[in-house]
Amino acid sequence: MSGKQEQIETFEKIISNTVRLISPDNIFVACGTLSVLLNQMVRPGTNQLK
C-alpha cells in the first residue's frame, strides 16, 4: 500500500465488512502494526474501539 491513509481506509473496510457479514461480539487485533491504525480510524455509531 502506498501510504498510511490507504492502510487506514483498507483496514476500515475490512472491519466494516467483518461486522456486516459476521456480526461478531468482539474483534481482536493481534498485530502491532494494525493496532496502531485502530487509534486513527473513524468508526461512527456506538461501537467502541479498545
Structural write-up:
The protein has 50 residues and is mainly alpha-helical. The protein has one domain (4-38). 52% of the residues lie in helices and 0% in strands. It is built from 2 helices and no strands. It is globular and about 30 Å long. The N and C termini lie far apart (25 Å).
- Secondary-structure element string: HH
Proportion in helices: 40-55%
Give the biggest beta sheet: none
Mean pLDDT: 81
Beta-strand portion reads under 5%
What is the alpha-carbon Rg in Å? Answer: 11 Å
What is the total tally of β strands? 0
From the helix content, strand content and strand pairing, which structural class follows?
mainly alpha
Gap between N and C termini: 25 Å
Tally of helical runs: 2
Number of domains: 1
The outline comes out as: globular
Poorly predicted tracts of residues: none
